[in-house]
Amino acid sequence: MKQSSTLIPTLREVPADAEIKSHQLLLRAGFIRQIASGVYSYLPLGNRVLKKVEAIVREEMDNIGAVELLMPTLQPAELWQETGRWYSYGAELMRMNDRHERRFALGPTHEEVITSLVRDEIKSYKRLPLALYQIQTKFRDEKRPRFGLLRGREFVMKDAYSFHTSQESLDEMYQKMVQAYTNIFSRLGLNFRAVIADSGAIGGKDTHEFMVLSEIGEDTIAYSDTSDYAANIEMAEVVTTYEKSNEALQELTKINTGNHKTIEEVATFLQVTREKLIKSLLFVVDEEYVLVLVRGDHEVNDIKVKNLLNATSVELASPEQTNEVMGCPVGNVGPIGAKVKIIADYGVQSIVNGICGANALEIHYTGVNPTRDFSVDQYGDIRFIQEGDPSPDGKGRILFAKGIEVGHVFKLGTRYSEAMNAVYLDENGRSQTMIMGCYGIGISRVLTAVAEQLADDKGLIWPSSITPYDVHVIVVNMKDEAQKNAGLNLYDKLKQERYDILLDDRQERAGVKFADSDLIGIPVRVVVGKRVSEGIVEVKIRKTGETIELPIEQLLSELPNVIK
Amino acid sequence: MKQSSTLIPTLREVPADAEIKSHQLLLRAGFIRQIASGVYSYLPLGNRVLKKVEAIVREEMDNIGAVELLMPTLQPAELWQETGRWYSYGAELMRMNDRHERRFALGPTHEEVITSLVRDEIKSYKRLPLALYQIQTKFRDEKRPRFGLLRGREFVMKDAYSFHTSQESLDEMYQKMVQAYTNIFSRLGLNFRAVIADSGAIGGKDTHEFMVLSEIGEDTIAYSDTSDYAANIEMAEVVTTYEKSNEALQELTKINTGNHKTIEEVATFLQVTREKLIKSLLFVVDEEYVLVLVRGDHEVNDIKVKNLLNATSVELASPEQTNEVMGCPVGNVGPIGAKVKIIADYGVQSIVNGICGANALEIHYTGVNPTRDFSVDQYGDIRFIQEGDPSPDGKGRILFAKGIEVGHVFKLGTRYSEAMNAVYLDENGRSQTMIMGCYGIGISRVLTAVAEQLADDKGLIWPSSITPYDVHVIVVNMKDEAQKNAGLNLYDKLKQERYDILLDDRQERAGVKFADSDLIGIPVRVVVGKRVSEGIVEVKIRKTGETIELPIEQLLSELPNVIK
Prior knowledge:
2 copies of one chain form a homodimer.
Chain A: H1 21-28, E1 32-36, E2 39-42, H2 44-63, E3 67-68, E4 74-76, H3 77-83, H4 85-88, E5 94-97, E6 103-106, H5 111-121, E7 130-139, E8 154-164, H6 167-187, E9 192-196, E10 207-213, E11 219-224, E12 230-232, E13 253-256, H7 263-270, E14 278-285, E15 288-295, H8 302-308, E16 314-316, H9 319-326, E17 341-345, H10 346-349, E18 354-360, E19 363-368, E20 378-380, E21 398-413, H11 415-419, E22 423-425, E23 431-433, E24 435-442, H12 443-454, E25 471-475, H13 481-496, E26 501-504, H14 510-520, E27 524-528, E28 536-541, E29 547-551, H15 552-563
Helix pairs in contact in A: 1-12, 2-6, 2-12
């Protein structure tokens, strides 16, 4: 493509409303333009990257036997009413009336449509398992769209759905999907982790989020420094073994800690490390009060509390509730003499001569020893993992990172098939509910992830798998006939060899052309300049800045190596 | 793809609500399913055809230098208000409010978005001409969606827009687009015509519709039996030369025609051919009464009347108006003694001893001769063309056909660029308004057109360019190990050779498999049956029904010929 015939409106200035690097660069390099809040046009370069990402996703989906189809954007309200999501999805579901006042959702996801389709068309176990996917524009009315393509209101997704007769069959497909996603994000050149995630209220079991490591990410990931273990910090299991000090047991003693309330304040006041303190927090668990203990340097993870107690709802008690139940302010709560159920993290078990609140204003205990001084109804892993903890898979230590979610795999189970009566006849002619999985990739979001992770201060840097063009050929001076002709010849020749070429044939200064080229970030640049009269062109690698001069007739034979 | 792992839900019965062949077959063969009125899912086979059509369109667009981008579905109302179409587009424009009560249209077309984009990004003549296109889902709230994909509410379109500094540049692009469209529809195997169409109220000049000839079409096309001339019948120029009889002129005579009012009745009553009659109709043209004359066997074309008189509005006068102005009922109106402006079709000029109304109840004139008996203010081509008329390009005679519109090219001129102030600076630094063209193809509609034109009574027949799979391999009996193994081997081998293969590996009766195969319409079928034990398979051409038996090892070398 000749640059004079396409639309690549680069900007010198950083757009005022773009907060993060990827958003700034995608705007400045002319890949996208905003049409409305959270709604973008993909200009020619952005569209090319999008289509290349789609092609990779398609290939890997096809490889695992998933079958592509295309469902509509307009989804009748009746389908969403069957699952109840018409009411529960909230303001993020874009809705509209047609001319006959029938209600529709603009699809943010397609569980309802695909379940209704498969329910109507599949009647026998013989036609299962089945995995279907589509690549399609989705809609979600984000309250605060931001970060460009990262949190938009109209975006491109690959969404896949699978249907099974058994949990084993679902497990098998889930593993295939995890592998396909791993292939996809590897081919995209991303540093990512498959992160164990919370299956939330949907009721499924296994779920992984594919997170690209990036400081702009909205989620924190706990990952191993040596293995591929990674989990959402809410989900990461703590397998730390705590050593119990063999110091002599002290006597249980009440002391006045005055106005010192927080863990930090009490530890400083008593000149001990926070590990000595027993953090005691009153929770309301399914309408029952439960005292939850963790070590002073740890944080309670309420999802783990919920799972340990097999509860539906876990909430911290209010200061008023705490005062009423424990007879003291929040800062003085402790397990000794408490009249409520007590659960404690494993870390508490090993505390020797610890400190805890005494359930009286301005009073703490010292010399506290679990079992001797109070009993615990149940020990468990109920704290957040921390950096430095051993990785749950036994390999290495945990580090934290922020992540951008680019993919999600989820064992739905029968959440949708039950609500929508998607059943089949088994080998014995008995009606059974289908078991489902769903699997998404944020196609347009990938552009942001790649731009965040691979760009430098001069501009974007595309991996060769999804670069808008393979090679950027720059004619330094279009008024110089020798340069112009050599550039046009090279363009034709490379196109014949099936390379995607962007030719800068504009009447612009060399400085503008080089700056634009750095901004756009095509991995290989060929500069046709003064030395073309001697038959020499310059090849530059965008990522490393490495430059070599080559006789023009060697370029074709060298190019495959350079691109690698 | 193995048929056991995909979703091809064929139907034996004709679905009750499908009126036309293509709709019935696309449903029965499992290519599409309706989700809501005019809203469809493309099942795996339908999606494959869609993607192949898209690829052909993309290739031909790229070949003429058009550049792909992707604009959003959600279009802010403000943009549509700039051109006034927010108000004029009517109920077909789907509209919605976001969570902040901002109004959006779901794009049925993208003139506003692209014009705003180009207006903001292109400032200089140096960046023009520019041709941009996208392939995207569009929305139009049809009052009565019908005929499956033909008149849907959500559909896939290719829409292109071009921007120019001169009419010549637009003309050049328009010609390129016409050529690209011709290539596209030829590659799709369609019998089509580029039809001269009415540019309507938009104010552009040239416009062609690409019509696939089909009896279910909603428009009538006048086309030449020898050349590629074709026009919407409203637009087709009449170049007939009329011979004037040299019979002796009769005297003008009043006769009582009683209750005989219509052309047919009067001609029969007087025992003459309709050619002898002068059909006289009173019109209201821009608030002035005009008497319009055509030969009795011709029909007035009001678009031609409008163009001849350079008028804004042309309407037939009501019977009351006619009675008031002419003093008689509609059936007795005539030019002799009329006090209004008279225009006549060229055909009237040659009438000798004709018959017309006498502007009195139950009275006609015979022996009427134009010029001698009445004068005409202006002669012109103001009738509809008829079958048998000479083609306006001088080649052959006109025939009529019905057509399905699959494409449209249109010289927009400055309709949008003026309304939205899309200007550039010319060589002299002066601000000029961009000149635009727009060019659409109904991608999903192509499926209907192909199905209508190429199917037979057994099912669909796909041209090799867009067939969902190249070859349908059918294992007659999956319980026969020899057949099963030979089928699976063949499947692998053909896939290695890069053929797209559908393998019928289902546990179904042979009859079901063959009927489904005919219905689906893959052009080449390879049947792995009993004779595979002797190394023989059967190859069948879907279109001709031609069958040959081949040694399995010859299949690979023969297949390219067979597919051709």
